[in-house]
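In the previous chapter we treated chains in isolation. Here, by contrast, the input contains two separate entities that must be folded as one system, with a combined length of 916 residues.
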Amino acid sequence: MITGGIRVLNAGLPLIVDGVPAADVVQLDWRPPAFGDAHVAEIAVSLDDEITHDANRRAIAAVHAVRPRLVAVRPAREVIAGMGEGKVLLHAGPPLDFGRMCGPMVGALMGASLFEGWAATPAEAEQLLRSGQVELAPCHHRSAVGPMAGVISPSMPVLVVADGERRAFASLNEGLGKVLRFGAFDEEVVTRLRWMRDTLGPVLDAALEAFGPIDITSLIGQALAMGDEGHNRNVAATSLLTRRLAPTIAALPHGIEVLEFLAGNDHFVLNMSMAGAKLAMDAAIGIENSTLVTAMARNGVEFGLRVAGTGEQWFTAPVGPADGLFFPGFGIEDANPDLGDSAITETLGLGGFAMAASPAIVQFVGGTPDDALATTRSMRRITLGPHPAYMLPPLNFTGTPSGIDVLKVLDTGMLPVINTGIAHREAGVGQIGAGVVSAPSEVFLKAAVGLRHARDSR
Amino acid sequence: MITGGIRVLNAGLPLIVDGVPAADVVQLDWRPPAFGDAHVAEIAVSLDDEITHDANRRAIAAVHAVRPRLVAVRPAREVIAGMGEGKVLLHAGPPLDFGRMCGPMVGALMGASLFEGWAATPAEAEQLLRSGQVELAPCHHRSAVGPMAGVISPSMPVLVVADGERRAFASLNEGLGKVLRFGAFDEEVVTRLRWMRDTLGPVLDAALEAFGPIDITSLIGQALAMGDEGHNRNVAATSLLTRRLAPTIAALPHGIEVLEFLAGNDHFVLNMSMAGAKLAMDAAIGIENSTLVTAMARNGVEFGLRVAGTGEQWFTAPVGPADGLFFPGFGIEDANPDLGDSAITETLGLGGFAMAASPAIVQFVGGTPDDALATTRSMRRITLGPHPAYMLPPLNFTGTPSGIDVLKVLDTGMLPVINTGIAHREAGVGQIGAGVVSAPSEVFLKAAVGLRHARDSR
């Protein structure tokens, strides 16, 4: 006989305790590990040992020890491996055949072909790409990253980010509106790319030569105390950088044009943030047995994940569109599935992971300032530790959650949150909004299997 | 007979209920109105009627309707009334005889006399000032404001802020270190003042002429979403402004020097924020029966308060030093009592009132980010309403508490919180820290009496 009343603690579905008065029930927010996949759950448990923990300590220490500095802006063909001759285009995300590529990616590749003079019309450009005469490769395979379509062509100037012998590269940010990275390719787009090649790139390179390198960690760290999150909000970092370089740029021929461009592009530093994060994360590639995520990238069709212990292997899964705030006249039905290498910022602990720094970001990606704080707090559960240089003032100056651990994602069932722009699904249109997206669970399941396999093969 | 136990609700001193078990006591945080002054409490109650409420509605509406724009930078003698000829110096705070002035104020007046060429040595300058041959007047009496010592001399370039026919003025910010406004007056200080007169002022004026006016409300509003509070933290507004004006400044002779100065002065926009606040608050001066505070200012000896319904009258009380964070080697014993017109920013709802926007400010003035949120929330209790253009993202985009009501201060016993710099008490030393200070209660008691008197005299 039960005489003292019933108190229920339920870890299963709420319907199990539907008949019990709500006041007597505590419903746990518990999810089965490995998203309910028993096989992967067993693998995850088998990997959760001192070997993995030791490897992860070394991996995150290697990442946090990198101090990326912007040292130059050079044409891609001069600095990126394999871009010196021939028709080569880099793109965002994991590898993908041209035939499977999404609208904005095709549009950006067409625009780059027009810009390089490989084709005279959009139709010619598409035909050229379809013919297979242009070599296509992921940015990530060449130490580079690019936002959205992420297309880099040989003549484009790229940011050169360095720490000692390490190098990483990123395209220059074009600003908002009709831009190549969102799949637009008309004359306005190509004209801007020519100006970036002939003026913006050389002037910035000369300015860096005169001024000296820019410490990206310091710049982004300061911007996190000024409402940026290092991915979708970059107005503070861009303003700080412009103010610092303005005297040097002003002294150069065409400096005024460059200052005008920087004054009008609130997102200029995004690509620096990305290249800096890429340089840092690459330090962990190939650290055996580490379950640290070293890259998250999307090509508009598939989401790709790389993990330290499995080197340069990609674990992929289909990707969906981001939800968020759309420009007037557009909705989720117009949205392309998520794309871009910019999730390298979340991989390091910026962007969605640093939302707490940026209450104003919610006006751009949706939600409330409290959601922003909660998002950062929740990302602590799937990361290896706080970033030592990226402090979040609203959370009493604790470091941003840094270094996603595949095992923690599987254990908690919490997926990395990524801030992102939203491209129209058709080539040639451009940006239609911005929002938040979760990484797909499938890539973490595959990564666990890959990590187990890598350990067993040694 | 009490049989059900005792529950105590205590609104008095905690010692009254010292003998009652703590668990049974609710201690109210209640303070007697008018800081315990029964006579003023009666006056405050007598003023708390529809006449006052109606006047306050009109007063705060008038303040919020002002849209200050920076339109020019001109020598003080050209634009400030009564500075066209003769030896005139303006200073911060309410009026004060030279003989009673504090060290940093005397130092700044000496430096300005040297800068104007009225004296060749510091000793000559002090003698001249002591002789009474230099007319001294508060900045506030000439539609102007100046931070710390706030000294404005005829040759100094001043910011000209306008809305229609309204005008307000402020000195140009010199940066940190050895600067006039903290009482330093050596050759470095005077040399910088000459450069500001000959280069900075004319270049900024020409840039504004070419670029057009700068909307101060829009600039500060954007900076509040970037960690500034518009008083002690100005790096976002300064960076935004510099980035916006850089192309125009770069095209002017000596533009590069000016861009270098702006790149090195994180506080440049403070004086713009002050002049904008002054222009807005002046719109309420003389609105009969309004209990809205229109100015708070300190001269290093006395704190001065002005209230809409009593026009240009000052209510004064002795002022103490601010508590906060001191530079290494200095402490509160070295601190001058608080000074400066910069509390005009708090008068409008910036600075201490907007701390919630600026979690990073606590590294400069002390406290924690939670204290910053609590401070802004508490200032709601003594203000007439949220500012319609100054949103605070961490408080879900509510406006900053704006418009201090003398009656609410007396009713709640809560005093306005002011962020401030701390000057060394001796002339010639300079800044030794920054911190937070409360307005003295005495000025609010005097203001209530003055308001009652003003009403009775009509």
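The CA atoms of residues 235 and 450 of chain B lie 39 Å apart. The two ends of chain B are 58 Å apart (CA to CA). Compare these points with the single-chain example from earlier in the chapter.
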